[in-house]
Amino acid sequence: DKFGLEYDLGIYNIVAVNDFNMGAMENKGLNVFNTAYVLADPATATDSDYERVEGVIGHEYFHNWTGNRVTCRDWFQLTLKEGLTVFRDQEFSGDMGSNAVKRIEDVRGLRGRQFNEDAGPMSHPIRPDSYINMDNFYTATVYSKGAEVIRMYNTLLTPAGFRKGMDLYFERHDGSGVTCDDFRSAMADANGVDLDQFGLWYSTSGTPTVTYSSSYDAESGTFSLTLSQKSNSDDPLHIPVSVGLIDKESGEEVVPTKVLELKEATQTFEFTDIKGDVVPSILRGFSAPVKVVPESGVVDESSLAFLAAKDTDGFNKWESGQRLFTSLIFQTMDDKQSEQTLSFVNEAFIQTLTSENMSDYSIQAYALTPPTESTLAEELDVVDPVALRQARGSVKKAIARKFQTEIRAKYDELTAAMEAESGEFKVDATSVGRRRLRNVLLDYLCSIKETAEEQKAAAELATAQYNAATGMTDKIAALAALSSMDGEGADARDAAIQKFYDDANGDALVLDKWFAVQATADLPDVLDRVKALTKHPDFTLSNPNRCRSLVSVFATNAAPFHAENGDGYSFVGGIVAELDKINPQIASRVAGSLIQWKRYDEKRGQLMKGELEKLVSMKPISDNLFEVVSRGLK
What we know:
The protein is α/β, with parallel strands linked by helices. It contains 24 helices and twelve strands. α6 packs parallel to α8, α7 packs parallel to α9 and α21 packs antiparallel against α22.
């Protein structure tokens, strides 16, 4: 309905495959799916699994037009079909659930994966200019950043203008192999605008930075916002920056969302007839895939606290709270914690936790959750994963202790509400959000485990949720909490891990979760545990899902993977060497965890580089792996 693109076959055929490198493939008339992205029921799939299944099935279905009927002239144009179709599946999932929640989830993923890719040796534009093996460019950049470029068309032209461009694109090119420039031309011609400068997004690698400064002239009632941009492009990009203004005194929105078109290195935008000073809400809805920083380099935390409480844009309201969390975590890392920052974070947390006006449990859950380690790492020039985990954990634990009574009360309230609806298992937005919020609270409560008594209490709480769980979402959240328990919680941990394995009864997708939850554990001996699991009779490198569930997941467990002794690197390097003989495509993906060595301290960096040198000197070595490790060594 949204784009007027009706399916043109009488039946939609699908096949599910357990041994499959990709998520799915849009073959005309018969879509092929990895079982992980098409099979789901409450006993075996989490809410996130359901959301992925919905998105991936939508994605492949939408490819019938954006990929099959209109396809790519050559592989360099891959983002033409993938970026556009990811945007379509994001819009579909948002319309099916909550657009605000979906936007937060997508941006969290973009920052955690694509920004990291942009900062490393495999950085490339959404339309790559060269490759050895195209398999290596089915990337977060081509897909996720490509979708953000498509979204910018939608922002600049409005949804109605974007639809006009889509209609002209299909009118011109149905049945053809085309280029990214053909899509851009259709958008420009349908709307009578010049998008030549916008085309630079297709050839520019890296994440641009937008800096801002502002001033208010009370005498003339003029608020001025100055924006500057910096990127890897020799010429300025065309960046849509959505902005709103909130009155400092009343907290009312005095200028609703307005799209500013930043097309020069520096531009000043003026808002007139402003009756009092305002706080700008910048990059609403994450209107462009950029980093936004104050020109002064100093974050105005009072403005962030104000926006976290008053902003009318759901995304920026969440973003402001996340930036406060980030400031406090980095202060904790540097042992320079500010009482003011701590006060802002605590106030935002308790207001969010106890608010009666939060209409969406998922938004509430995400607002209470500190930024992920991967998101935080993108803010650092030199990353110390161990110190980062300790600082983030310290902040989370301090909040949990300060508000333990209120967190437990909310947890019990949600538990009672879920027990009262003990009928049919639901995956609607309210039910999913309630489970998501309760599991965030469980994570806070289980972070309090210094003393033997606290360890026992945390284990009992997580075990009770595990045993009472009516679906996989609550079960896996409880198991994740238990998997990181030690001391008095160790027996409960081991019992839950064994019970989960027994209950899986050989189900491949459930066993993947069993391996993954152990690979992400926050335990001092997690690497030894992962090594032991590679010898488990249910583990095999020959199945891509199983390999990813243990090895790839461990590589995302930053603190143990980046242990100073280098054991995490040598383990993964050895697996990659073995894997390249049987599945070069997966081997090159896993090797990607080693190529960011320049972002770490000298000791870690040299250990990572050493593993890459071992891999690149292998004979034979696949083109897939050679391309990744050779670029990683540059």
